[in-house]
Amino acid sequence: MKNSTRNFVKIITEICNEENIDLKSFSYDWIFQLHKNGINNYIIGYQFGLNVASVHSICCDKSAASEIMSSLKIPNIEHYFFMSPVNQKYISEVGNWDVLMKKLKEYGQLVCKSNEGSGGNLVFRVSNQYELENAVYKIFQKSRSMAVSPYYDISNEYRAIVLDGEIKLIYFKKRPYVIGDGIHSIGSLIFEYLSKEDSNIFNVKFSDEDMTRIMEKGECFELNWKHNLGQGSKATILQNQDIINNIETIVSTVVDKMNIRFASIDVAECDNEYKILEINSGVMMEHFSQQDDDSYKIAKEIYREAVLKMFKLR
């Protein structure tokens, strides 16, 4: 997708027109200069400049954020830091491999990802040495550091958008799935699903056993272990008040203790417990805003308030 076709670009343009803010675009719509009342503010990517630089840097660093949350006694999915061999000399000469293999033996399955990545890209679930080697090789080709966490069976993943201590939106991410009819194989059902849905799940590998299996009528088979909206999941605004209360409690704790102003915070539900998965100081609602008109309006109003706060107008 070209930057100019993003909903984000359209939304920021509309907001500035409606709020009498002069807008200039740089770097193919990746940087915006907003001018009002003699003041310039900038949006870079999805960063609105509301978080101080140190908080922004911590949020962008998965393993650093995890370490800090653990020190603050905030439940989170642990992320361990590994440096690319090119830069390993700056922190240790021991190397990565023994520690990685110990983690794999300890947990059985690991999730390896770029330490500063997003969108579910360069994220690998591994359960043996070959898969681990493949993941490490691919990640270090593109990234200078890697975050590794134990694999958790996440029953639900939620995203909360928070702005100056107020939670503006909570939705859960429903992974793509097919439902058995007692007649067709899973492979046939997946083929039918892909013929109807604009879903990016082609990098998911299924076993031959799964592809040929015929599920019982009504049985559910999820097509991706990741919950990313950019990889086929759908966002549904959370309505269950008990779950909302649980999400609000842990998110508010993170926001207060880490001095976060504007962020999207991912919360994983594992065995009826809630853990922070990631903190994103760049608030990206591109896929959410594309779902329908109501989602577009919700995203726009959140971004509008953020823009006005940049100029201290809210």
Q: Characteristics of this structure?
A:
about 325 residues; alpha+beta; D-amino Acid Aminotransferase, Chain A, domain 1; Dna Ligase, domain 1; five-stranded antiparallel sheet; four-stranded antiparallel sheet; 10 helices; about 35% helix
Please explain how this structure is put together.
With 314 residues, this protein is of the alpha+beta class. Helices cover 35% and strands 25% of the residues. The protein is built from ten helices and 14 strands. Helix 1 (7-18) packs across helix 10. The longest helix is centred in the last third of the chain and has 18 residues, at 241-258. The radius of gyration is 21 Å and the shape is globular. The relative contact order is 0.16.
